[in-house]
Amino acid sequence: MNESSNGVAGADGALAVSMRDVTKVYQMGEVEVHALRGVSVDLEVGGFMVLLGPSGSGKSTLLNILGGLDVPTSGQVLYRGQDLTRADEGELTQYRRRRVGFVFQFYNLIPSLTARENVELVTEISEDPLPAPEALDIVGLADRSSHFPSQMSGGEQQRVAIARAIAKRPDILLCDEPTGALDITTGIQVLEALERVNREYGATTAIITHNAAIATIADRVISLADGRISRQHVNETRAAASTIQW
Amino acid sequence: MIRALDRKLLRDLWRVRSMGLAIAMVVASGIALLVASLICFDSLETTRDRYYARNEFGDVFANAKRVPRWVAGSLDELPGVDRVDTRVVAGVTLDVEGTSEPVNGRLISLPDSGRPVLNGITLRSGRWPDPGRAEEAIVNERFAQGHGLALGDQVFAVINGRRQRLEIVGTALSPEYVYAIAGGDLLPDPTRFGVFWMARRHLATAFDMEGGFNDISLSLAEGAAPEPAIVELDRLLEPYGGLGAIPRAQQISHWYLQNELTGLRGMALLMPMIFLGIAAFLLNVVLRRMVAVQREQIAVLKAMGYSNLRLGLHFTQWAMVVSVLGGVLGIALGALMSAGMLGLYMEYFRFPDLIIRWSWGHILGALLACGAASVLGAAAAVKSVVKLPPAEAMRPAAPDSFQVSLLERLGLRRWLTQPLRMVLRNLSRRPARAAMSVIGIAFSASIMVLASAAMDSFEELMQLQFNVVQRQDVTVTFFEPEGRAAFYELASVPGVIEVEPLNGASVRLRNGHRNRQVGIQALQPDARLQRVVGADYQPVRFDRAGLILSRKLAEVLAVEPGDTLRVEALQGTRPERDMVVSATVDDLMGVSAYLEPEALQRFLSDTATLSGAALGIDPAARDSVYAALKGMPVVAGVALQHAMLENFETFVAENVNNQLAINLLFAMVIAFGVIYNTARISLSERSRELASMRVMGFTRAEIGVVLFGELAILTAAAIPVGLALGYSMLAGMVAAYETELFRMPLVAEPATFAWSSAAVVVAMGLSAAVVRRKLNRLDLVEVLKTRE
Ligand SMILES: Nc1ncnc2c1ncn2[C@@H]1O[C@H](COP(=O)(O)OP(=O)(O)OP(=O)(O)O)[C@@H](O)[C@H]1O
Ligand SMILES: [Mg+2]
């Protein structure tokens, strides 16, 4: 839908987020854990990126920094030219509130709220949100809107989480292993939902996965190893989610 | 439209409703006490002030032996004086039909024309006496009720040995006798003390007061201090046997009323603070647990862009809802309680009408107090919400770090089963929380101790007074100091087994600007009936020359043994002399100065000093002794030991048991609130491990040990702390209640401690039973499936 979706990194497409030489060091008492050791990544507007890498390689850390959940130890993160590393807690909150949608591996729905109410949790604090039923419709759960998380399967819960993430019409959609706990069919359903949001609403999307097969639906694939980018790869054509071989 | 976050709030509230309810009950108890005390305080104060104002209750009171009428004119000139009322007032013994006992009466003159200038009486039934008729009198309502006297009934006053008929034409209330208590009594006894108002002319004739008066009341101009008027009044009355003027603050009925109001205000402050403090602690524990459980939810909400403020508010709201619910419940409960309390007060304090006052400011204050408690309780939880970094929360909480507990390190390890070790490690991992739980439970025990030990102390005061200090059956007081003849007359009454003279005189003790008017008593070193007893319950020995003072009196006058006091007699030739204070004595009722009999005799030179006598009588001859006493002209008052004891027992039965039940209830609410919440939190924290243990094959009883072992240890630790705390609170209260009228000994019966401990244990059993049901319903699959 966007020219840059076929382009290479740093090409003429406008940048949603750009990271420069980002490092992240966790201080664990005596020990320093280097989760990121100088990573530079650009996310073009409307792009679909997949992050691969072994466990502990720093994927979640990267995503959290992109989403304003965490701040880097050094380096720079620019969102449309605005420096997130200089933002204070209030500004980061506003950034997350207005721009970012998150989908987590363990769904993280509020157990005491129904599917629809979980989505409303977001629509109520957003400026121009999708109506909650519409968001649920996009992920194919219109008929489950009054169900509580405990009454839904894992895949359904994950799709509610996606509906919740997209309902605010985010600029950036960040998903940490959204299919990690799901079987093939449900995983594909979830990916289709993400794909659709990326395509129809133009949300810049980044997905963490352990499953290399999923990489085929992205237009850019970044592999992390030990806190560094070990490989970058641009797909000439994006495969449809439904065609993925698990 | 309810917002999604608020809906979460509502459902959270519902899910932990039992904990919320337990906390709300604690809040409700505190607020109920607060509101009830405040309503009582406001109502009684307003009622009193209006009553005083409407009936023009005096500001300064004095009496003298006999003051000629012309002196009245100069009373107006005293500094700050607005209005003056002079009366004839006489203490008499009464002969009431249906009672063989001599009853104490007070006759008060009414002006021959018009109504009293000050201390107006409020007619409750009947009419005013006809000034032309000597026998017509108005009686105080309580006495009429106590004896079932109706209009037209008669009683007899013994005046100068003659029975004078009084016909009741009306009943009334007076601001002077709101608390109608005879001097020397601890509790008002409606049947033992009657006040009669009758035409001045006849009263004056009977008591040789024609052209004179013996009682003065003054009202002061607004803002005028009583002291200057008192000084001048004393000087003015001195030639006429003035006995020292007192300000309203020392007027006996007012003093008791004021004391009660002060107590109410203390209760309105202290008890609710304890309750709300405990509620705040419980809210804190529950909320912190809630935040811990909802760690990931909070992180998600943060990731979505909910601000710290909004989320902090979310948890504060939970606390708010709980405490405001408790507050509203408490206000309603308090309003109900206040009706009951006021009813009781009206039994003892007599007002023509009760003005119920209930200030919105106070209600608002109560709700604000709840709000403050909830904010306080939520603060720590909110802080941890704010501190929670959204990114880190996305990973499961690190397993809590545990240590081998101290007991185990001390070598007890071998003896501890695995579940017991878990209990010990759980406790030692969160020592602060364990300590808070102990304190919370301890408070519930302390409230019980305080409530029932206060009663123990009061009872001890009574026992001491009646069995150790005053061992006589009857105490007789004379109108005026008498000589030996009166003593022999009493001794010769058939049925009187033992007589002990009570020698004393009215004096004023002066130390610089401090002074007190007291009775100086001479007690025989070998006294068997009326004795002076110190804190060690041993009779004080009069082997030293000089003045012995009640400790309280020494405090008031700021003297210590070795200091010198100016002693001014208020009778006879009014001699004055400096005397050295040789010792103080820890007596419990009233304040007195004691002197060795001969020293007293020397001080007063030839004046008679026999002010009364203590009698031991043959129970079989009671009625004839009473009859003889009623007929003796010198007798002004008769106090009966058995009547005082019975009155006290009635008082205990009517009030104390109620009070005890209420306190027991409140203590149980606190104990249950604390223990139940502690248990529920443990259950929630441990449901995973408990479920795992069940999966491994532990029985319900075995996993019960983990949960209830912790409770049992906390409770066991809390009980001694609570008992000690209650005892020290009692000590504080006894010290605070020390007055010139009485001092309570510090006593707590073993039964009190046993009861208090039992109440806490019962509360623990109840909580354990409720939690046990939840434990039994623990769904193993469900618990293990979810990610903690
Ligand atoms: N709060 C933290 N404190 C200390 N170390 C941390 C913290 N968070 C992450 N780390 C460390 O940083 C490194 C990168 O972690 P990260 O969660 O980004 O890995 P990941 O690639 O997402 O792994 P996975 O695929 O297992 O989710 C790891 O070594 C991890 O142990
Ligand atoms: Mg990860």
Describe the fold and architecture.
The complex is a heterodimer of chains A (246) and B (788). With 246 residues, chain A is an alpha/beta fold. Chain A has a domain at 45-66 and 98-243: P-loop containing nucleotide triphosphate hydrolases (Rossmann fold, 3-Layer(aba) Sandwich), CATH 3.40.50.300. Chain A has six helices and ten strands. A six-stranded mixed β-sheet of chain A has the order 6-7-8-3-9-10, sandwiched between helices. A four-stranded antiparallel β-sheet of chain A has the order 2-1-4-5, with helices on one face. In chain A, helix 3 (115-123) packs across helix 4 and helix 5 runs parallel beside helix 6 (184-201). The radius of gyration of chain A is 17 Å and the shape is globular. The model of chain A is unreliable at 1-12 (pLDDT under 50). With 788 residues, chain B is of the alpha+beta class. Chain B is built from 21 helices and 20 strands. A six-stranded mixed β-barrel of chain B has the order 3-4-9-6-8-7. The relative contact order of chain B is 0.12. The interface between A and B is medium-sized, with 33 and 26 residues. The structure holds adenosine-5'-triphosphate and magnesium ion. The site of adenosine-5'-triphosphate (ATP) has 12 residues of chain A, from strand 1, strand 2 and helix 1.
